[in-house]
Amino acid sequence: MSQPLTSETGRAAMRALIKEKSALGPLKVMAQHIGHFFQIPLPGFRPYVVFGPEAARKVLVTEREKVLWRNTDPVTDYLDRGVLVVDGDEHDHYRKIMEPPLHPARLAGYTQMMISQTDRVTSQWRDGETVDMLVESRKIALLIIMQTLFSKDVWDDLQKIWKPILKAIEYISPGAWIIWRNMPRFGFRKPLRELDDYLFKIIEERRKTKDEWKVESGKSDLLQHLIDAGLTDKVIRDQMLTMMIAGHDTSTALLAWVFALLGQHPEILKQVVGEVDASEKSQMLEHVIKESLRLYPPIHIGNRRVVEDMQFSEGTVPAGERLFYSIYLTHRDPEIWENAEDFCPERFTHKGKTPPMSYIPFGAGPRVCIGAAFGQVEARVVMERLLQNFSFEFTKHPINAHMGATLEPRPGVMMKVTKRRETS
Ligand code: HEM
């Protein structure tokens, strides 16, 4: 059985909160003091947290019918019928419609576009200036996702949609609403409506030009698949919003963390650049991306509602409770990972060293990330392009892991960029 929370654990958790400036610190303390199963003692909200391969396997695969994604909170209210937040047949239906454009066989067809979108963003950098790679990565990821899924070039609209998108992300990020469910939230109505209007306009334009889109189905984008499936504009909006946010905020965080980690480890950055210059496929870059996803998984926790009692070796979660499976704690479990807290990309050179379900940056089972292959190809293509064309020098400022909708490096990743060669 798990140990009860003692005042010593409480004090250590508080110290970790102050030191790490994020709830990740207290989570780690509770994991160390209590085990792989514990409850967070918030006022009026006491979710259970589980982690490690056993928990991941149960929640994601073997006992997944005992948990639901659907909750009643700002995330599910806002994304409404979006594939990420619905369950059962409804989920399976939307998921099937949206899988083809993200199928691994389609990915090679996106590479050139990913490169051009990256170049458009870097074309605005002045040689030798300092840029925030959190912001720049978001621009690149947004351009790429909108072009891929909706064939929409948002370059000229970036300024217009930037604030609405950031507000949408803020709206679904964890906050005081977790304990005060119906708290009034100001400043969101207008930007969220603007974003909706923008998406509905894209749908309307596509419906008007539908005949031009009657191309071979292998070439249809995600929007066309949604329209051809006969969904209403509202349900299409829910899927577009879900995919737009899930598909770019995660990649933004991943790219930004890769820069943060490379910035903090210049010797590894040098090695990666050397490999990228020398070969088509740098092994080291692959491992750096993987290690970044281990240490800072953009989706660091999975949120579920338990509908039937669930037993774990260290305790039982009763039906009706909230359950978080922690990807972050699984990835830093010292029982699984040697030097778990250290950035060590070489660990991925030795294949098969960790047990199954111990590395789950994209989740697992039938609800594994629909964009897992896409996201990894994107990170690789964008990183290669950036490293080939620019040198990056970290300005050595402190970085904290911020729990927003994704885990983000805050206040950003400030890097001095210097041109290495002209883009062609
Ligand atoms: C580095 C990039 C990414 C990471 C780390 C990531 C991570 C994840 C994780 C952990 C889940 C499972 C959540 C859970 O079970 O609670 C998930 C689901 C999902 N992801 Fe991603 N993701 C990434 C990129 C993408 C991209 C590029 C897209 C869209 C193009 C996307 C769309 C989705 C959707 C729609 C789901 C829900 C799937 C379902 O419930 O069937 N993600 N992602």
Account of the protein in words:
With 424 residues, the protein is an alpha+beta fold. Helices cover 49% and strands 11% of the residues. It is built from 16 helices and twelve strands. The strands form four sheets. A five-stranded mixed β-sheet has the order 1-2-8-5-3. β6 and β7 form a beta hairpin. The protein starts with 6 loop residues before the first helix and ends in a 5-residue tail after the last strand.
State Rg: 22 Å
Count of helix runs:
16
Q: Would you give the CATH topology of the largest domain?
A: Cytochrome p450
What is the terminal-to-terminal distance?
61 Å
Short description:
With about 425 residues, the protein is an alpha+beta fold. The chain has helices spanning about 5-20, 25-35, 55-60, 75-80, 90-100, 105, 110-120, 135-150, 160-170, 190-210, 220-230, 235-265, 265-280, 285-295, 325-330, 370-390, and strands spanning about 35-40, 50, 65-70, 130, 300-305, 310, 315, 320-325, 390-395, 400-405, 405-410, 415-420.
List the helices and strands and how they pair.
Elements: H1 7-20, H2 24-33, E1 37-39, E2 48-50, H3 53-62, E3 67-68, H4 74-79, H5 88-98, H6 104-107, H7 111-122, E4 130-132, H8 133-150, H9 158-172, H10 189-208, H11 222-228, H12 233-264, H13 266-278, H14 283-295, E5 301-306, E6 310-312, E7 315-317, E8 322-326, H15 327-331, H16 372-389, E9 390-394, E10 400-403, E11 407-410, E12 414-419
Parallel strand pairs: 2-8
Antiparallel strand pairs: 1-2, 3-5, 4-12, 5-8, 6-7, 9-12, 10-11
Helix pairs in contact: 1-2, 7-8, 7-16, 8-12, 9-10, 10-12, 12-14, 12-16
This protein binds protoporphyrin IX containing FE.
